[in-house]
Write a structure and sequence with these properties.
Structural class: mainly alpha
Distance between the termini: 37 Å
Order of helices and strands: HHHHHHHHHH
Length: 208
């Protein structure tokens, strides 16, 4: 029997995710994998939802460990690499984007604040920085959702001849470039930000 603690349960749950996919992850399967009775898991996680939230946070560890920006960094280069790093981390786990979608980064809010402070100090208007980070995060999650749901080359072979197969990385890079270009234009001297009655809140979701 595996010696259990909270970290072990999460690690085994992530390995189970990689083996069977998100839909097949269950506390019953996890308990069997750990060699314990299912109720033993409730000592660490009251519900499956709590377990999935902990798995989502742990799956983000590589991105959370990335160096924070420094004052000498070019904000455009940093914005690109930060978003690419988020994508790479989502792709590390089977169904990584589905696991992450809708999660709130409770464990790294200080990192999010420091990233926002860096963008603002670099001359990006605060609201634009917030919305750009949100847009890039949601775009990345959506892109990886599509990529991880791709049935593969067999399905692509059935497409019409005039419809090229999607290169997911190229499509991601093109979309990311458009987001950055729009943000750069809004930071240009003399740009006037139009007033809007809409003020969407983020709740911290997908700002990475």
């Amino acid at each position: 029997m595996t010696k259990m603690n909270r970290e072990t349960v999460i690690a085994e749950a992530l390995d189970l995710l990689d083996e069977v996919g998100l839909d097949a992850v269950s506390t019953r399967r996890l308990a069997k994998r750990l060699g314990v009775e299912q109720p033993s898991l409730y000592w660490y996680f009251r519900t499956k939802k709590d377990l999935l939230a902990a798995m989502a946070e742990a799956a983000m560890a590589p991105h959370a460990a990335a160096p924070l920006p420094t004052p000498d960094d070019d904000w455009r280069d940093w914005f690109l690499e930060n978003t690419r790093g988020f994508r790479r981390t989502l792709l590390m786990r089977r169904d990584g984007a589905r696991l992450h979608a809708g999660s709130t980064p409770a464990g790294d809010l200080d990192r999010v604040r420091r990233k926002m402070e860096f963008l603002v100090a670099s001359g990006v208007p605060e609201r634009d920085a917030q919305m750009a980070m949100l847009a890039a995060g949601r775009f990345t999650v959506g892109s990886v959702l599509e990529e991880q749901a791709d049935p593969g080359p067999d399905a692509a072979a059935e497409l019409p001849a005039d419809m090229p197969a999607i290169d997911h990385e190229s499509a991601f890079e093109a979309g990311l470039a458009l987001i950055l270009e729009g943000l750069a234009r809004r930071t240009a001297p003399g740009h006037r930000v139009p007033l809007s009655s809409n003020d969407p809140t983020t709740g911290g979701r997908s700002i990475r």
